[in-house]
């Protein structure tokens, strides 16, 4: 890479760092009062520098933890089984397609659910930073040397990231500045790729010395789309050792590997806003009130003392410990009052505790606990009232759920699909080299249906994602309610006017209801199978009708024969 290219990267790095600088004081407050952790001089958090001695209340820390846990369970409650991939609307609904996507789902579940992949941990840490800083990311890393777990998921915090948006409003540029020991740098980049001073330190055994490394992920504007090399891929990934400006590693990617989400965002801003930012005034106030109560309580338990200045009290040393004895020598004021007494400088504290309860409730509400948790244990409600209340609570979070789905969850699933497809884990094309290799190893390959292969060649979408989560059901609850009410109305009117049912396509209705209610789609048979079942049933019914007709005709013939016989006897 030319020096001018490195100059351009470092210039942009400086610009992005300057843009973020105005947020650092706020991030420092959040880190201290929500995470109980200080920042070091570089703006990179140090887990060993705690702030416990300055913290008197942990309401915000607790509220953020609860919010993160509940929201992850709403968005990703069953691990990877929270979603399923299936055919698009313009793909034939056949048994082959259905079986293929069942195979795809099982392959994706097996990888994403593996504890070594770390997806659940990544989402948990990601959501904690969403509540605190309002912006964080999930890194989907392909591990080319691991055939069993080819993907690792990691959370990326905004504390050591600089970001920028693309024309579509999504984060497409990430500059990540990190410290890495020489020992780990050798494992990641190889000793031969490190700067000369780092190689010398490694040889001298100083392997724990830190290196400052800048990892740049951004769209590659200057590339040849017709070439397939790493340096002509759409996304550039460059690792630079900052002190020497040496490139440690440069590669390319077909898509962004890190997906950054914002909790909420104001138009014109890039960095997100969080509940902790909105609650910061109350967080600071409750901390100050707690500190004041601690001081006041200490004064009540061990109040300051007042003594006269015309006597000797214990030789100037007053023992206020339990059971302590102090000798008083008082002149002139023996009968005028106590020679020593406490000074009460603290008023009543109950109003302060009431104010703390109010601040606690306000902070919890800033973190949406009033909508995420149901604290109503006293008021009895009907089922309809409870459903309506839950719907309203959920709808107030719909915008957040939609943003999380669009910016992070869906891209994570799509990149996982693409990596597994590239690695041959989702089937092979008939006649391909991958098929020949599998057969040579004695493995029966799973084939990608021809119709999907053709859609890939055309650049069309071959699947769509269906979510089976409480968050998705919340966003779709109105549509589901409308469908159910329409179906109930039609069924209720049918006894008076049976033709009204002709207006409803019950096949589409059951498929749509299953999707909106979060039922696994493998429970719904494909249209070809359903048609086969109905054709078989119709054929069976037709055969029964024919048998019944034959029976009736036989009975009629027998009756006619008996009648003719009787008439013959009468004539004789």
Tell me the fraction of residues in β-strands, as a range.
Answer: 15-25%
In order across it, which strands form the biggest sheet?
Answer: 6-7-8-9-10
Number of helices: 18
The level of helicity is 40-55%
Whole-number mean pLDDT: 82
Distance between the termini: 121 Å
Poorly predicted ranges? 41-45
Textual characterization of the structure:
The structure is a single chain. This protein has about 575 residues and is an alpha+beta fold. Among the domains are: about 5-55 and about 115-265, no CATH class; about 305-340, no CATH class. The chain is about 50% helix and about 15% strand. It is built from 18 helices and 16 strands. It has helices at about 5-20, 25-35, 60-75, 95-110, 120-135, 180-190, 195-205, 275-300, 350-365, 370, 385-395, 400-420, 435-440, 450-455, 470-475, 475-495, 505-515, 525-570, and strands at about 35-40, 45-50, 85, 135-140, 150-155, 160-165, 170-180, 210-220, 235-240, 245-255, 260, 305, 310-315, 330, 340, 465. The protein has a five-stranded antiparallel sheet. A three-stranded antiparallel sheet has the order 5-4-11, covered by helices on one side. A hairpin with a 5-residue loop joins strand 1 (about 35-40) and strand 2. Helix 2 packs across helix 8, helix 3 (about 60-75) crosses helix 5 (about 120-135) and helix 16 runs antiparallel to helix 17. The longest helix is centred in the last third of the chain and has 45 residues, at about 525-570. The model is unreliable at about 40-45 (pLDDT under 50).
């Amino acid at each position: 890479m030319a020096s001018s290219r490195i100059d351009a990267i470092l210039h942009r790095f400086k610009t992005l760092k300057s843009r973020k600088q105005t947020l650092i004081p706020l991030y420092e407050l959040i880190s201290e009062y929500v995470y109980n952790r200080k920042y070091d001089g570089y703006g990179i958090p140090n887990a060993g520098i705690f702030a416990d001695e300055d913290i008197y209340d942990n309401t915000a820390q607790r509220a953020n933890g609860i919010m993160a846990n509940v929201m992850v369970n709403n968005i990703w409650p069953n691990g990877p089984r929270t979603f399923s991939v299936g055919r698009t609307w313009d793909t034939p609904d056949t048994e082959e397609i259905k079986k293929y996507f069942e195979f795809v789902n099982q392959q994706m579940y097996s990888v994403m659910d593996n504890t070594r992949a770390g997806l659940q941990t990544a989402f948990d840490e990601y959501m904690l930073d969403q509540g605190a800083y309002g912006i964080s990311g999930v890194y989907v890393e392909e591990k080319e040397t691991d055939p069993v777990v080819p993907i690792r998921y990691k959370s990326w915090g905004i504390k050591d990231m600089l970001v920028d948006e693309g024309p579509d409003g999504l984060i497409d540029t990430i500059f990540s500045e990190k410290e890495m020991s020489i020992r780990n740098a050798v494992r990641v980049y190889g000793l031969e790729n490190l700067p000369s001073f780092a190689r010398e330190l490694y040889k001298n055994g100083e392997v724990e010395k830190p290196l400052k490394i800048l990892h740049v992920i951004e769209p590659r504007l200057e590339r040849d789309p017709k070439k397939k090399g790493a340096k002509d891929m759409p996304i550039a990934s460059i690792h630079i050792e900052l002190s020497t400006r040496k490139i440690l590693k440069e590669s390319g990617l077909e898509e962004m590997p890190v997906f950054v989400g914002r909790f909420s965002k104001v138009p014109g801003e890039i960095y997100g806003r969080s509940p902790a930012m909105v609650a910061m005034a109350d967080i600071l106030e409750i901390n100050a009130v707690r500190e004041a109560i601690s001081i006041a309580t200490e004064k009540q338990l061990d109040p300051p003392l007042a003594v006269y200045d015309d006597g000797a009290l214990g030789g100037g040393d007053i023992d206020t410990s339990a059971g302590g004895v102090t000798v008083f020598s008082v002149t002139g004021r023996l009968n005028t009052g106590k020679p020593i007494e406490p000074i009460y400088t603290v008023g009543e504290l109950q109003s302060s505790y009431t104010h703390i309860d109010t601040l606690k409730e306000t902070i919890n509400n800033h973190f949406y606990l009033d909508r995420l948790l149901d604290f109503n244990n006293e008021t009895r409600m009907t089922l309809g009232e409870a459903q309506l209340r839950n719907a309203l609570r959920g709808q107030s979070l719909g915008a957040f759920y939609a943003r999380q789905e669009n910016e992070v969850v869906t891209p994570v699933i799509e990149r996982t699909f693409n990596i597994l497809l590239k690695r041959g884990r989702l089937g092979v094309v008939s006649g391909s080299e991958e098929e020949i290799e599998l057969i040579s190893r004695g493995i029966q390959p799973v084939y990608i249906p021809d119709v999907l292969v053709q859609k890939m060649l055309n650049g069309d979408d071959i699947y769509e994602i269906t979510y089976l989560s409480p968050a998705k059901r919340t966003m779709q609850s109105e549509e589901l309610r409308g469908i159910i009410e329409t179906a109930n109305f039609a069924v209720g009117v049918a006894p008076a006017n049976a033709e009204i049912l002709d207006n409803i396509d019950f096949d589409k209705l059951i498929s749509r209801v299953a999707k909106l209610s979060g039922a696994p789609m493998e429970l719904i048979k494909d249209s070809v199978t359903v048609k086969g079942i109905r054709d078989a049933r119709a054929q069976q019914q037709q055969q029964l009708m024919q048998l019944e007709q034959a029976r009736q005709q036989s009975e009629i013939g027998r009756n006619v024969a008996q009648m003719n016989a009787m008439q013959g006897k009468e004539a004789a």
